[in-house]
Q: What sequence folds into this?
């Protein structure tokens, strides 16, 4: 996996770099539509979230303001369900050093094909389909797939899909001209996460943690939980978070607005295509004067 190097960055990225010691980053939650309905989802994504796509022109305009950024994460929902996904991925890969794509991977070849491969235990067919879907992906891409009991319960053939992805990761991750294949294992305990990484033999390619969504599920008064945690009231230096509802300076503020329609000071505005008044740079400049 290669990282792009840029001779010059956009004015916005220069500001983000200055705040982060050149570790600037952006998260794009381009849709909340998802092909699964997992019980743990912090983003309330699901098959019924059809009106949550960020418009493709809006995403592309924002990506152009971020030319030269250290890394961009594209996520959702399930980002492959966005109608402009291919355009978004291409533009992000051209404008960022590294692109991280968070996907469950099902739409790479489709639910029915995965069910068919799993039923006949056709690992060769599955790997061929995955390779065909990903061979055209940019070299500076990191693909990350969920490895947890929640996704395994939501779609039974998901276990077979993970086995195919794990096998492909062992081969591709040693090649310089292929995207990196990784996994995120956030179980309720680190021990359970380690058990799953051992089961699928993906420890070298996996970020292991614990389920950070737990407070969102268990806390009755989400507003009190938010206000009681200092980090959730602080902007993350060098970072910006964007979804169809607005632009934020940390993920907790985005989740507050998404789940409870509670807007915090860390929501710094909304975007409109080709509008200088609502550009990312303009919004971030206002935030800099207030927070930094």
A:
């Amino acid at each position: 996996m290669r990282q792009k190097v840029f001779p010059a960055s956009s004015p916005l990225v220069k500001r983000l770099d200055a705040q982060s010691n050149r570790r600037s980053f952006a998260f794009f939650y381009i849709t909340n539509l998802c092909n699964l309905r997992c019980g743990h989802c912090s983003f309330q994504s699901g098959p019924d979230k059809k009106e949550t796509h960020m418009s493709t022109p809006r995403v592309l305009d924002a990506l152009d303001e971020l030319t030269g950024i250290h890394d961009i994460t594209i996520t959702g929902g399930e980002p492959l369900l966005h109608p402009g996904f291919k355009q978004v991925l291409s533009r992000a890969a051209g404008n960022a050093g590294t692109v991280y794509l968070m996907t469950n991977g099902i739409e790479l070849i489709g639910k029915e094909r995965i069910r068919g491969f799993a039923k006949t235990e056709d690992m060769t067919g599955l790997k061929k389909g995955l390779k065909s879907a990903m061979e055209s992906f940019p070299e500076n891409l990191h693909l990350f797939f969920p490895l947890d009991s929640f996704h395994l319960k939501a779609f039974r053939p998901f276990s077979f899909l993970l086995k195919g992805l794990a096998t492909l990761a062992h081969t591709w991750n040693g090649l310089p001209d292929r995207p990196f294949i990784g996994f995120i294992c956030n179980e309720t305990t680190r021990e359970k996460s380690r058990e799953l990484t051992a089961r699928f033999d993906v420890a070298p390619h996996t970020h292991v943690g614990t389920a950070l969504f737990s407070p969102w599920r268990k806390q009755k008064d989400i507003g009190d939980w938010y206000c009681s945690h200092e980090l959730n009231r602080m902007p993350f230096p060098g970072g910006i978070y964007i979804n169809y509802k607005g632009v934020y300076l940390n993920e907790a503020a985005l989740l507050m607005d998404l789940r409870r329609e509670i807007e915090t000071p860390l929501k710094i505005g909304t975007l409109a295509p080709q509008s200088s008044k609502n550009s990312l740079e303009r919004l971030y400049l206002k935030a800099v004067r207030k927070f930094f």
